[in-house]
Amino acid sequence: MLPRIGDSLSFLYLDMMRIIQDDTGLIAFPSEAAPVRRLRIPTAALSCLLLGPGTSITAPALATLARHGTTVVCTGAAAVRTYAGIVAPGQSSRWLEAQAAAWADEQARLDVAARMYQMRFGGTVPAATNLAQLRGLEGQRMKALYRLLATQHRLPRFKRSYDPHDWEGQDPVNLALSAANICLYGIVHAAIIALGCSPGLGFVHTGTTHSFVYDVADLYKAELTLPVAFSLHNSDDPEGDARRAFRSKLRLYRLMPRIVRDIQNLLEPDGAQAPDDEGFDIDDVELVHLWDPQAGTLAGGTNYADRVGAPAKEDIADWTDADEEPSSSWPT
Question: Which amino acids does the record list as binding Mn(2+) (predicted)?
Fold first, then answer.
C-alpha cells in the first residue's frame, strides 16, 4: 500500500543493480561488479520499488516484496518511462474504488474534471464555471503561456505541433516538448500504478488505456515541460537534451510525492490532510470487505448465517438430507 507518501522510504529507485534474497532479507549490489557495497532494502518500510535500466531481480526477491505489499514498477532511466507494474496481491483497493466510483457517476466525474481544470488555474476561476468554459479558458491560458515563453526566448510565434508521421520535420521546441512530455507520462504512470489506480479510467481524456495518465500529466506541463522545451530552442539534440534536463530537475520538482497527493485530493477532496502536507493518513482497515447495497461495506471473515433473512439451521439440515433444491421463498 501507499499509506503515507511523506515517509522518506515510500519510493526507492535503483538502476544498474542486482537484487537478490539472502538469509535475512533483500540486498542490492552493482550488477557488473562483485557482490560488495551491498545495500539492504527495507521491504517492510517500502511502498514502491522502481527498477531502472540494467536492474535484475530474482523470483524469491519478488516474492518477498509481494509478501510485504510493495509495488514493483519497471521504468526507464530516473523513472521517466513506465514499462510494467507488479502490484502486490494484498494492496488496498481504496484509491481504485474511489476512482472507479467517481468515473462511473456522471456528476462525480464532472466534479473531478472540473477540479483538474481548477488546479491548473490555481483556484483563480469561479467555482460555478462549467466544464465547457473551463476548457476554453484552459486553451486561452496555454496560448498566453506560449506567447510569454516565446517572447522570453526571442522566438517568433509558437504553435504546438505533434505529428508522429513527420517527427523530424518539427522544430526543436516541439521536439523537446514531445520528449519531455513522454518523460512526464512515465513518472505519472508509475505513481498511478503505485497507488493502485487504473491508468485507463480518465476524467477529461477517454478512449485509451492511458487516459488517466494524460489527465494527471496535464496538471504539470505548463510548469515543468514547457519551460524546458523553450529553453532548448537552439539545441542540436532537443529530444536527448530535454530528457536529460527533465531528469536532472526531478529532485528539485519532488514530483512523485506531489502527483500522489494531487491524485488523492482529486478523488477525495474532503479527505483528512496529513500534518506534514505530504499525503493522507489511511485508517487501519481490513483488506477484504463484503459489499451490500443497503449496508454498504461489511466486515469480511464473518459468518452471517444467524442474521435475519437466512434459512434456519434445521431447514438447511432437512434440505441437505433430502438432497432437494431449496424453496424459492428462501433468500438467495
Answer: 138, 205, 218
Q: List CB contacts of 30: < 8 A, sequence separation 6 or more.
A: 16, 17, 18, 36, 37
Question: Please, what sign has the CA dihedral across residues 137, 138, 141, 146?
Answer: negative
pLDDT tens per residue across span 85-125: 777 666 778 899 999 999 999 999 999 998 999 888 876 77
Q: Does a structural domain hold residue 332?
A: no
Indicate if 170 and 241 belong to the same structural domain: yes
Are residues 98 and 82 part of one domain? no
Q: For residue 139, what are the contacts with CB-CB under 8 A and spacing of at least 6?
A: none
SS3 state of residue 100: helix
Q: Which residue ranges make up the annotated binding site for Mn(2+)?
A: 138, 205, 218
| Domain span including residue 248 | 94-267
pLDDT exceeds 80 at position 230? yes
- Residue 57, strand partner residues: 19
Q: State the binding site.
A: 138, 205, 218
- CA–CA–CA angle 87, 277, 118 (5° rounding): 85
pLDDT of residue 317: 56
The answer to pTM > 0.70 is: no
